[in-house]
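Standup, Tuesday
Yesterday: got the pipeline producing structure tokens again.
Today: sanity-check two examples.
Blockers: none.

Example 1:
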Amino acid sequence: MSAQKTSASRTKPVSAVGAFVGFVGFSVLAGLLVTIGVTPAIAVAGVTTTSTIGVFESLPEYIEIGDLPQRNEVLAYQGGQSVHLATVYDQNRQELSFDQISDQLKNAAIDGEDKRFYDHGGVDMTSLVRAGVGSLAGGLGESGGGSTLTMQLVRNIKMQQALELPTEEERNKAYNDAVEQTIPRKLEEMKLAIGLAKKYSHKEILTGYLNIAYFGDQTYGVQAAAQHYFNKNATDLTPQEAASILAIVQSPNTRNLSDPKYYDANVARRDVILKSMYAQKHLTKEQFDSAIASKPADYVHLTAPNQGCKAAAGNGSQFFCDYAVKVVKQMSQLGGTEKERGVAWRNGGYTVQTTLNLDLNGQQKDLLNKYDPNTETRFALGSTMNSIEASTGRILTMAQNKDYDQALQTAPTSTSINYSTDFDYGGSGGFQTGSTYKIFTLLDWLKNGHGLNETVSGTPRLMASGWKECGAPYYAGGYTPKNDSPGENGNFTVARATALSVNVAFLNMAQKLDLCDIRDTAKSLGVHRADGGELKSNPTSVLGINEIAPMTMAAAYATISNGGTYCAPIAIDNITNASGKSLGGQPKECKQVLDPSVAATAAYAMQGTIKYGTAVGAQTAGGTPMFAKTGTTDEADQIWLVGGSSKVATAYWQGNWDGGKTNLRHYYSGSGYGSYASNRADVWRQAMTPINTYFPGEAFPAPSQTAIRGNSIAVPNVAGQTADQARSAISAAGFTYVDGGTQPGGGTAGTVSSTSPGSGSLLSRGSSVTVYTTDGTQSTVPEAAGQSVGDARSTMNNAGFGNVAVADAFEKGDGKNQCTVASIDPAPGTATSKDTGVTLKLYGDKDGKAPKGCK
């Protein structure tokens, strides 16, 4: 509800006919109040039989001052201490007690609005009749027609109650009813004012009025007004300041002090109040003269309301603040229904202790500003860092490269979208995770008894069939995936495939599993799509096509840090209500979802990513054991690095926040730090360095040899066997025999020359072993150095080489080795066709000349 509507409603003009009706109406009211015994001293509802009194009696008489909306304070941690993060409120208000309000304000309110406040019982007959006469002259008047402070308090209470209704339609109707200037509305207002005067003391009514009144520019209550307009407390106001504040209430949009254009209107009413204060002997002549002579420019010190998450303290804390407030509004401590929680938060008075570590968050914000600047204009660059305490799920950081703004998009450097969270908490639909999602295939692989030393193929091929989804075959059409590096081919152990992030190797692993099981493993670690949809479980999902929030990925990886126990992310440590009672925080929701040995084995594999894989450079100087996994989408438009220590997991994401496909490998920040994509390991290392100081990590449990080997079987050595013998041995070992055909090679034609994977490799039962046989056309050049020419010829002939020649040139000899073989071409050990010519080079004399009789 806008303040403009408040002003318009309070100053609505009436016609001449309306003025007459107003006069007659007020005359009736005056007679009615006298009839029922409302005197200037006290109002007592009598019991009579007249119809007029019956109408009055039918109106409600019960209303309470109640709790007014107040500020909510949000806290974070800094330097190990709880500190202020933000002040968040529905209405900018700080409720004061009677003794905390300056006498100048109290006097200004009474002298300017209701001189006989302490003498009447909620309705002032004298003012009422005067207002009726005044209406004949042209309107109801600024005070709304003889309204006492008590009647104005009733109106403000009803306005406040209207603003707390759940829908905009309900709020608008109730608000308009509350400010409507009609005889029935005035009757109800007076009846409720009489009820208030019976229930509350004059001090309580005056205090309630000064705390609830609207003072323009989104400011409620005298304390907020004093802070906003004068940068001081309501206890310390001068006469002119107090009068200027009270001058606002009758027309908050045209007399507030937020702009010099309103000063003249404010001063006109201010001076009326000052004259009344002087007439009531609440100001000395000297005070009055000084106040009247003053100008608003001399004492107005406008201070922007330091409220909301946009004004949150701490570098880059605004997005977390916004997230935490959304979380609080869903917590049962504020009520059992959404409506109850909304009203409770609007009423305010809560102190919310969050989990945010301002020191770490600020450091991460600085890193993002440096490496992923929000000034990038060539494409929509977004980036986040999210760190989660593994053993609790407490969110330690939520840094973002963009600045926070409540508007959807006000400038390229700012946004209202929180990239770290789900759509419901910040408007982001998440981002494809790339290879960071492979960890869920690895975990399911280990859960099914497979090992890290098991060999899988990384050679690209058509992978249309061979899939299983929820127990049923899945056909992937012409799916021919590729690896990130064109040269990645051949066989890899699972450990090495993890460290090097080989796409096809993981897809081959997934073909030995069920795609739904991989999906469910991810779900057990809290993984879900940021847009609320179902996680995809097709073959491409193995490589990370689901759009997931960075904070979700950080929490999933924290499960590995925590020995297989998943803890849902929490942002609120505790809530304290307005009376100081602790209501508790978000419950710690932790569940063992992985066998500790599986978590330890996965951590072991991902330590290789940092030691020799795709995240080399991520290790911190202190040597804290850490694991990590990188992720890059096909177009390199989304870049990830997620990992952690045994204490804290951190997700670093950078990418196109608008769905664009700009390749981050091809763009440089212009700061001399390399491409955006190439910086990730270094940036992540810098983020983890202070974290490891705050939360010293420990060594991860070593995986067992069983976990390393798993239930795999070694490929038997069938070299030299016939194809039939090899087929029998391969099948007996539990593998599928695949004929690789005949290749040029040595040995007896038709016998086995090699297998893929090679002998001794560990494979899953049922895996394919390709067997290659030799055509016998090749041989290996034998060693013949130091032999005589005749012996060397015999050695070559015996190896199958019949074309042997002696070179014309000689090597320098020592006189003793003349005419013996010095070198051979091709070199010994070379496998080549038996038709290949072999040249022998001999030693000569000490000058390298041919001695007699060498050939």
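Example 2:
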Amino acid sequence: MSNQNLRRDEAAARSRLLTVESYDVELDLGNAADPAAPGFRSRSTIHFTCSESAASTFVDFIHGGVQAVVVNGKAYDPAETVTGSRIELRNLQAGINTVSIEGTALYSRSGEGLHRFTDPADGKTYLYTQYEPADARRVFANFEQPDLKASFTFHVTAPSDWEVASNGVEAARTPLGDGTLSRWDFSPTQRISTYITCVLAGGYFKATDLWSAVLDDGTELVVPLAAYCRASMAEHFDPENIFDTTKRGLDFFHRLFAYPYPFGKYDQAFVPEYNLGAMENPGLVTFTEAYLFRTKATEAQYEARANTILHEMAHMWFGDLVTMRWWDDLWLKESFADYMGALAVDEATGWTNSWVSFANRRKAWAYVQDQLPTTHPIVADIPDLEAAKQNFDGITYAKGASVLKQLVAYVGFEAFIEASRTYFYRHAYGNTTLEDLLDVLSSASGRDMRLWSRQWLQTAGVPVLEVEAETGADGTYSSVIVHQDAPDPVSGEQVPRPHRVRLGSYGFTSDGWLERTGVVELDVVGRHTPVPELVGTEPPALLLPNDGDLTYAKIRFDTASLATVLEVLPRLRDPLARAITLSALWNSVRDGLLSARDYVRLVIRTAPSEPGAGVLQALLDNARYAVERYAPAEIRDEVREQLFEAVSGQLAEAPGGTDRQLILARTAAALGRHSTSHNELLRGLLSGSVAYPGLAVDPDLRWRLWQALSATGSAGPEELKAELAGDNTAAGRVGYTVAAAAIPDPRVKAEAWQRAVHTVELSNELLSATIEGITLGGHELLDGYVSDYFASLESVWSSRSIELASRVVAGLYPGAQDLPLHTVPADHPVLALSQEWLELNPEAPAALRRIVIEQQDHLLRSLRAQAAAR
């Protein structure tokens, strides 16, 4: 039985017993370029103090064999001390202890531990580590929990012509033997947690720069900067832009936090097959190389990259300098970094619509997550590591950030920053809980923050704020009330929360624009909050709840305001007001209050005048999802065709070389996955017989077009292989894999299903590409795999890491279903099979059950929306 799933109580017991001082870690990566080599030598020497004599505990190590275990100079037989991923330490002495463990760690293809990637473009090998929440134990033996911080010294043996980096500054590099291998020695780190240690090695391209700042004592802080990418990506690398954002961020946070950057250097590596957007390893931040744009990218994509860079930078203080004690308080780093990332983009870069992007993307993610049966409070109950892995979700990130924005409106920005500064100085290089944060917030604001915490951090679910407005005989408001509906997702009882909100009044200008004419700021408390300031005033064309997006809540318009936005939304000039309105309308679609047909019509009217690339992309993405999941089957083709005609028409008229043109071309390709009637345009773009001035049909767009043709059976394997031959890159391989698995041939689907579900041969990125290809096009070919999906769940979970298993379970859930006429959603057979599996498998891992429950709920929501639209 696996013992990898460390429990909270086990971690707490180990923390009471131990204080870890330092690690000395040696990794021999000299064989990494040999694909037949499964693992590498790893040696950890750990110095720690123990509070008891003759005590026992364990070290964590997920390994391919342990060769030596030495405790305080005494060697132990690994056969007697190693059980699964735990190495027992016996007869510890009170006071200082030294443990040395040598073993074989395994190279990874899942993006967990030390990931190994061979570049198809040039055959070079690339390695990087990714540990959150608990995968450092895949690389070296350690006490894998966030509150046992220590100083880490890494030594790495690797080919001499490689770039090698770690958290610390390179202290020495020594050629070995004939000089083909060298040993890199790195300086000790500050006290940090195991999950944010990092090693990078391979044929990386490296760029360098410097950032400096004057400290309060007049001395200068100089921080070396570096940026890495694969050698074959160097021609697409733009380190000057990355360094510019980095310097702006360091300037901003240096002033804001009044605590000098604490980790010496600041490297950033853009790596292949990365599971996350980025990871905040101090001194060596890692990013997905999707943020390197080998083809044309929109301003929204560049803004998203800047947001991620600054999000990770905020972690240097929130998460790295001060770290949560256990994963219950994961939000102490992720919510703050999400909020600070958006704030820094808004105030320190050239992008001024950061909060628009936040409202459109991040909060939308939170609203979806917070309406699932598996929702949880921001301060969550995390009993073990599997639960921790599942809680890197929209609640912890985006809802937490939204609530922090509400907190800033509640206590004031200056009090919030004063509390943050105190928090850093009081707990530097240590670990905290919720109580530690509440203490500094209460002190800085003069308010008792524990009530606020109970109402916002320790409750779950999305409040709904709805405006009810009545007019009198004279045409003025006789009553305006903000109603709050805030049921607890489990009990159903109302748990209203305090909201600091603005009600914005909008009227038409002489030239037809809808602009703000007034604002009422108020505290919404309880179920019903009257707004006496508006009584006796003339109703505006639009009364916008949550103007400025200060709070976290879905909003509903009064009747007159809803009529206005449905009719003239494109005339609403303010970008944030428009984003809030669009978010409200999308939530109404998801809740079955606005039909997919009406939403698509709204998008068709709104898209031509939407100036923001990020908003336009979100609009079109939502419209496509509404068509495929929320439109009844009998009208889906019609509504999709209306959307395609509008998109292709706008594409023909879009200014050349603009973000609008590129977004519309990508959307046309995505819509083309469902009908052969669009093949003329798709093939014309590929061949060049259809050309729009300024539109580059680059490799990214070409693969999107091929995937559309493949999904409708309009492109075959030989054409796809020919395209791959001309784009033999990592991205090309992914594009090809999606397209090849999308071909609607039963034999193709059977082979792809077998590879994804019943083998473990695919790397993380190619597994995701295969899953995407399997699910493209209609679901009829996959109906025969529904039974096998449920029958295979437990074997999939037990045979893979949680990362890869989660991709299979979520990605291949049969969620693309239609509601037959004259039936009710709850009776759908896939929902019944889901419920049957859950009832028959109550002891299945909680993380697995959570995914099935969530996918079941997504399907139920789509079926309900289809039913409501009939």
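Quick observation on example 2: The chain is about 40% helix and 20% strand. The chain has a mean pLDDT of 96.
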